[in-house]
Amino acid sequence: MRLAVISDIHGNLAALEAALADIESLGVDLVVVAGDLVNGAPDSRACWELIRSRGYSMLRGNHERYLFDLGTPAEAAEWQGERFGAVRWAAARFSRAELDEMRDLPDCPRPADCHDLLIVHASPRRDNDNLRPYTPEDEIRAMFAGTSEALVIRGHNHIGNTLQLSGRTNGNARTVERTIVTCGSVGMPLDGNASAQYLLLERHGRSWRWEHRSARYDVDATLRRFHEDGYLEAAGPIGRLLMREIATASHQMVPFLSSWERWSDGGELDLAAAVDSFLNAY
Predict the structure, then answer these.
(1) N or C: which end of the chain has fewer CB within 10 A?
(2) What residues contact residue 177 under an 8 Å CB cut-off, 6+ apart?
(3) CA 19, CA 188: separation in Å to the nearest integer?
């Protein structure tokens, strides 16, 4: 059995199409979308419609939550500010019924014939838990408390990675209690490789083998979409950072927010001016 897990598409239609074309060439039996299909690049709705038309299994990520919580009592107050123009743009592309459908997506799907896998967006605990190579083991165990699958597949961090939790000592060796594999991002990778990245798994007997794959796509076509249909104007200065993340396949948003916090020093700093300063300084 072959299984493809795609994650973190973030409205990048050209990247999604490239990943699916590569998957189809491999004779994959099952495709699972591990969250964050929407919000980032301009084509959230087109990505949603494409995945829905294929009937693939989907789970919700934190960006689906941003969309379906917008305009509800669960909305964070700052979501109406300038920083969240891209979220409001994406949410406006969907009906309330479609947003409710996103809300009803599972957070930990267990596809048929894959019950030995746990597939999540970030962790079962939260949809925005970050898992880094240096995350302490006790923190990782807290993220996955109450689950028992030996192999975990997740997205969220946009960089492919494999971590192993050690089990009990067996003589002079330690056993592997759990393997956690993070997929690369289809639509917004952050490892310097501007390609559509996903995870391919294949069952061999009672175990799984996996491969991080990437498919080239027309990055410039996605960047042009930012200038069409009024998206960049609606997304505001944050839209420029999203463009730069896609163009460079590197972290822009988190470093900017850290810099903005330092520059503000507790006061208010114009967002557009701050983005200009960041892009010129680094």
Answers:
(1) C
(2) 150, 164, 165, 166, 167, 168
(3) 12
Q: Contact, 34 vs 153, CB < 8 A?
A: yes
Task: Show the low-confidence residues of the chain (pLDDT under 70).
Answer: 168-176, 265-268, 282
What the block records as the tokens of 130 is: 């970050």
In this structure, the number of other CB atoms found within 10 A of the CB of residue 231 comes to: 21
Sign of CA dihedral 227, 20, 211, 57: positive
pLDDT of 145 reads 92
Contact 130, 154 (CB under 8 A): no
Q: Which amino acid is at 158?
A: H
Neighbour-count burial of 102, counting CB atoms closer than 10 A to its CB (0-12 exposed, 13-18 middle, 19+ buried): buried
Distance CA 203, CA 206 (A): 7
Angle (deg, nearest 10), helices 253-264 and 271-281: 110
Of 54, 35, 43, 7, give the one whose Cα is nearest residue 218.
43
Residues 148, 159: contact at Cβ < 8 Å?
Answer: no
pTM across the whole model:
0.93
Residue 131 tokens, joined: 């898992």
CA distance 141 to 137: 6
Structure tokens at 23: 């998957």
Q: What is the pLDDT of residues 167-197, one digit of tens each?
A: 765 556 666 689 999 999 999 999 999 999 9
